Amino acid sequence: MTDETTELEERESMEFDVVIVGAGPAGLAAAIRLKQIDADLNVVVLEKGSEVGAHILSGAVIDPIALDRLLPEWRDEDTPLKTPVTADKFFYLGEAGSIQLPNFLMPPLMNNHGNYVVSLGNVCRWMAEKAEALGVEVYPGFAAAEVLYDDKGAVIGVATGDMGVQRDGSHGPNYQRGMALLGKYTLIGEGVRGSLAKKLIKQFKLDEGCEPGKFGIGLKELWEIEPEKHQPGLVQHSFGWPLGAKAGGGSFLYHLEDNQVAVGFVVHLNYKNPYLAPFEEFQRFKTHPAIRPTFEGGRRIAYGARAITEGGWQSVPKLAFPGGALIGCSAGFVNVPRIKGSHNAMLSGMEAAEHVAAALSDGRAQDEISGYEDGWRTGPIGQDLKKVRNIKPLWSKYGLLGGVVLGGLDMWTNTFGFSLFGTLPHGKPDHMATEPTTKHQPIEYPKPDGVVSFDKLSSVFLSSTNHEEDQPVHLRVKDDDLQRDSEFSTYAGPSNRYCPAGVYEWLTEGEDQPRFQINAQNCVHCKTCDIKDPNQNIVWTVPEGGGGPNYPNM
Asked: Among candidates 358, 350, 354, which has minimal Cα distance to 67?
């Protein structure tokens, strides 16, 4: 099938057994598992980044449960999993000091023994090599921009975005029509708040009966620190200052190999104060006396940001639809208190692959693989998420200290198979949590010192973000008047603060009325705007393939 219009040339098309969107842990695990089951299957993986791993950003401490099942020989090979966890530390931070929490108080599921500190981007690069060795076709630099349907409404594949379109929408000299990639089944593993997943959830009402999706923004830097400060395998988590009671969130320091430390900061996107700025909170966090010494004398070598799914058990939509399924973070399988999702992403890709392979073996195509939908809650993914299903609602309802205490108690009781709270609801979506400025005071953030704290633009430079400057803006504002009258006038333009890359600005000087400027070339594809805009008036769409960040070891 191809898409024809009177104005555009006919798309070229390619046919496959399975089309997979996204070369993340879920998509690559699905591709590998499909070829393990049937080497003759024709499988393609599309990746919008310039290379596999370019758009992958995660902590990451990885639970190897999925890799042990997918590639059991990995421990005998040269892999990116080089640094086993050697120590776990948990801290509560006050403004001037910190308290280390005893490990025996932590629920067993919070123990990182047996896990590995990794660059998830490098893990994906390695997995892509494994997939290609099995015969999977991996196409980086191709952004899936459109879902294709048959005349019965079933998904039959995707189309990549047109290349060479000018900012005004005209066709430039290098214009090339996107390609249709057609499959008997299509697996969507775009990651958090994927543009196609969002459309499919709406099209097939996959979120009916579910709690609203909940999200956080995760900001991360990679540092090379002084050798005497480096402790390979140290995993350190903290909560408290600088967020305090203003918002929920936490932080991590993960010591990798080669004197490198990944430092990250997570802010839950249900915060109320429109003046809060997650990037500035992250920079301030690094100035804490318990944190700053690690980085003094070191060198910051990478920066990035990414939204995180936090709804868990209650918010996972229906996964299967006619012609395909959602996998990985497109579905939302992150275990929030563990700050881990890659193991569940891989497991979901593997499970979907097994059901797709069985359907293909039976001669089926473009139907609903209901077995995948029916099985995940009773399998290892469901068992992992069900134990922590109340953590996010408790944090939201009772704040930092109350939520941590009650959440810890709930995780302990879930160790024995029951919960004191049943299953708590999440309530309203994150964008509805933002309150007008009349209820809040502006927050004065310290200027960056250039030693451990930095500004946004120098940070974006480290992400190696690049977009073709003359392409159409991929961040769409549905109603300009609403943006000015509400986002600016009622909420004081929080887009300028929640965006971690300096994409959004409100220009007032020399203007008849405030003007919303979008610096789309800065976008690191975190999707926070699509989630947190108080009116849901900003829509994130895929830019031209290959655009965006180019993370080296994130």
From this structure: 350
Amino acid found at 252: F
Residue 496 belongs to what H/E stretch? helix 495-498
Amino acid at 361: S
CATH code that applies to domain 85-117+216-309+428-554: 3.30.9.90
State the distance between the two ends of the chain, measured CA to CA, in whole angstroms.
38
Q: Angle formed by the axes of helices 120-133 and 25-37, to 10°?
A: 20
Q: How many CB atoms lie within 10 A of CB 122?
A: 21
The pLDDT, as a whole number, for residue 373 is: 87
3-state secondary structure of 214: coil
Architecture of the structural domain at 13-70+122-212+313-386? 3-Layer(bba) Sandwich (3.50)
Q: What is the DSSP letter of 240?
A: E
Work out the pLDDT band at 416, boundaries 50, 70, 90: confident
Q: How far apart are CA 56 and CA 360, in angstroms?
A: 30
Total Cβ atoms within 10 A of residue 366: 20
Kindly compute the dihedral angle of the four CA atoms of residues 410, 416, 420, 421, in this order, to the nearest 10 degrees. 70
Helix crossing, 25-37 with 342-361: angle to 10°?
Answer: 30
pLDDT number for residue 8: 64
The residues pairing with 340 across neighbouring beta strands, listed in sequence order, are 335
Q: Please list the alpha-helical segments (H only) found in 72-141.
A: 120-133
Distance CA 117, CA 89 (A): 14
Smallest Cα–Cα separation from 183: which of 51, 322, 24?
322
What is the average per-residue pLDDT within 106-111?
Answer: 88
Query: What is the CB-side half-sphere exposure of residue 291 using CA atoms within 13 A?
Result: 35
Describe the strand order of the beta sheet including 260-268 as a list of residue ranges.
98-101, 87-93, 234-240, 249-255, 260-268, 215-224, 299-309
3-state DSSP of 414-455: HHCCCCCCCCCCCCCCHHHHCCCHHHCCCCCCCCCCCCCCCC
- Side-chain half-sphere CA neighbours of 290 within 13 A: 23
Find tokens 């999993």 and name the residue. Answer: 81
What is the bridge-based pairing of β-strands 180-188 and 13-21? parallel
Chain center to CA of 162? 25
Give CA–CA dist 175/165, Å, rounded: 6
Domain ranges in the chain are: 13-70+122-212+313-386, 85-117+216-309+428-554
**Amino acid found at 436:** P
CA–CA separation, 468 and 109 (whole Å): 45
| Listed residue (313, 312, 263, 310) closest to 288, CA to CA | 263
Q: Is the pLDDT of residue 393 over 90?
A: yes
Question: Tell me: the pLDDT tens digits for 317-350?
Answer: 999 999 999 999 999 999 999 999 999 999 999 9
Task: Report the residue count for the chain.
Answer: 554
**With helix as H, strand as E and coil as C, how does 488-518 read?**
HCCCCCCHHHHCCCCCEEEECCCCCCCEEEE
- DSSP 8-state secondary structure symbol assigned to residue 241: T
Q: How far is the C-alpha of 37 from the C-alpha of 295, rounded, in Å?
A: 47
Q: Please tell me the predicted confidence (pLDDT) of residue 2.
A: 39
Where do runs of H (alpha helix) occur along 77-119? none
